[in-house]
């Protein structure tokens, strides 16, 4: 499967376009400002978007998801544990927006990128998978209009944080890690829904169990691989 990358202007969030057979594709994590780039890319390549997939419900990864969903008549797909976040992108950020109104750091970053902070509308078509509530819910194989990925629940950053394994049948899949794992670091756990113990379990039982040669495409920052993180990432070392 081909993986194309777009970087959103707000918080430099990574948006991936997974291209399957016959021009079908899935857009993963379209953050604020990524939607226009995605539309241009899809048009230039003659692709057909089958779904919008998100690794977790934070607004820097989902802001353009509702508009793409409506305009392209495709669902927004995410773990059930984070579905509630799509109703209130500001109020679920806690310390990043302590007053629960669109005037905190997120709103400032949106305005700096020329995004109207009042433009948010929750998506009309949402297809959750897994189950909300405490505890990891394991793997779900998703067939999104012919584009297949394995969703591996990885809570800790948020309740519904999920790794997406691309070409999961191969020896060394590509891992879209969202804000679970970065090159040399991990996602923060001090926001609402974050959980230190859940993150430690995810790092120990989910991330460390991935094939070492697997390439990792984080939600922010450079790509890495599992072997490098196992050898050098201090958070993984502590969790093991």
UniProtKB/TrEMBL annotation:
Occurrences of domain Metallo-beta-lactamase (ranges): 13-220
Keyword flag Zinc: yes
InterPro entries linked to this entry: MBL_Glyoxalase_II, Metallo-B-lactamas, RibonucZ/Hydroxyglut_hydro
Superkingdom of origin organism: Bacteria
Keyword line: Hydrolase, Metal-binding, Zinc
SMART domains named in the record: Lactamase_B
The protein's required cofactors: Zn(2+)
Keyword Cell division: no
Annotated PANTHER family: HYDROXYACYLGLUTATHIONE HYDROLASE GLOC (PTHR46233:SF3)
Name of the protein in its database record: MBL fold metallo-hydrolase
Native organism: Cellulomonas avistercoris
